[in-house]
């Protein structure tokens, strides 16, 4: 399977669609009676009045599968366009779909799933600033993207420091570029505040920042037995890290800087869960893009066919098994 996706073959898109559905076999076999999804944060309901439970369960799952499939293709295009793996393949898409199917909450519509579109957009913009002479407009746009993501899912605000980290990694210090980040972020909330003021709902606007004062969450809803599916993921990530370390200083500067950025993106996505008092497992979908790049890097450069094919089969088998049982 991995060998097939190592090549740029249009038929792999069809295989990706099949694998996307295969990795949802468990939830199709044990279909939840009802799924409740908040597409946006409560403070933004006046702006976009989307009702809860607006989709039947089966439709919800199919739409979520379609979105993760589209994201995988976009992600694959970004990784190949900036040559992060050293060659063009469909492995980034394959590993993104795999990482986005690890847990049952990943398989339904969630705010984090929608935010991943913004995260991929940000990733493409990040990778583009290295060769630009002027990036103030790009950083302003990125600040606005983080603000939009915050309206959908508040912990996305943690990506704001990532914008400054990207400037540290890719650019010499320029205070105007740093200021453009916060200006873009404030722009969205300024117009949102005006909208709430016109609707005499300014008290709801103040509630936006309440999660920053919430206590550290301790009620993560996850079955410890289900975390066993992370063992093959952890093994692939470790192998990918050693493979990257072997080639790191032989890589071009842009590639080294890009993987440094992806590392911080993964860490911020991982630790930002504390910004949501009622933590849901789907939050960790934000870690899927950087994790998928490192896993794909291992499979692109791995030499032992029996090992990397077995690793992927164990990963897929574990995902399906823990969904069903």
From TrEMBL:
Keywords: Membrane, Transmembrane, Transmembrane helix
Transmembrane segments: 12-31, 61-82, 94-122, 142-166, 178-198, 222-242, 254-275, 281-299, 306-324
Transmembrane in keyword set: yes
Classification via Pfam families: DUF6427 (PF19992)
Membrane recorded as keyword: yes
UniProt xrefs under InterPro entries: DUF6427
Protein name from the UniProt record: Beta-carotene 15,15'-monooxygenase
Species for this entry: Daejeonella lutea
């Amino acid at each position: 399977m991995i060998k097939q996706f190592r090549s740029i073959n249009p038929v792999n898109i069809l295989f990706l669609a099949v694998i996307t559905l295969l990795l949802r076999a468990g939830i199709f076999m044990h279909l939840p009676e009802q799924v409740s999804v908040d597409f946006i944060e409560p403070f933004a309901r006046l702006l976009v009045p989307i009702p809860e439970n607006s989709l039947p369960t089966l439709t919800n799952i199919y739409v979520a599968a379609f979105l993760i499939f589209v994201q995988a293709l976009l992600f694959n295009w970004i990784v190949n366009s900036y040559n992060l793996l050293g060659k063009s393949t469909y492995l980034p898409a394959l590993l993104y779909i795999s990482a986005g199917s690890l847990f049952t909450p990943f398989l339904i519509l969630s705010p984090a799933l929608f935010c991943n579109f913004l995260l991929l957009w940000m990733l493409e913009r990040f990778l583009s600033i290295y060769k630009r002479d002027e990036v103030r407009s790009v950083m302003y746009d990125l600040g606005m993207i983080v603000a939009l993501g915050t309206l959908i899912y508040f912990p996305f605000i943690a990506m704001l420091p990532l914008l400054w980290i990207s400037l540290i990694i890719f650019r010499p210090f320029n205070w105007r570029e740093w200021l453009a980040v916060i200006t873009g972020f404030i722009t969205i909330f300024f117009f949102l505040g005006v909208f709430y003021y016109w609707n005499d709902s300014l008290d709801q606007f103040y509630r936006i920042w309440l999660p920053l004062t919430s206590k550290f969450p301790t009620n993560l809803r996850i079955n410890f037995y289900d975390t066993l599916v992370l063992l093959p993921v952890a093994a692939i990530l470790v192998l990918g890290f050693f493979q990257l370390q072997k080639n790191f200083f032989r890589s071009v500067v842009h590639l080294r800087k890009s993987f440094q950025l992806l590392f911080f993106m993964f860490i911020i996505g991982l630790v930002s869960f504390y910004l949501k008092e009622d933590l849901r497992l789907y939050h960790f979908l934000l870690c899927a893009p950087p994790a998928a790049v490192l896993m794909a890097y291992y499979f692109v450069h791995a030499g032992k066919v029996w090992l990397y094919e077995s690793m992927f089969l164990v990963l897929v088998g574990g995902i399906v098994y823990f969904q069903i049982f």
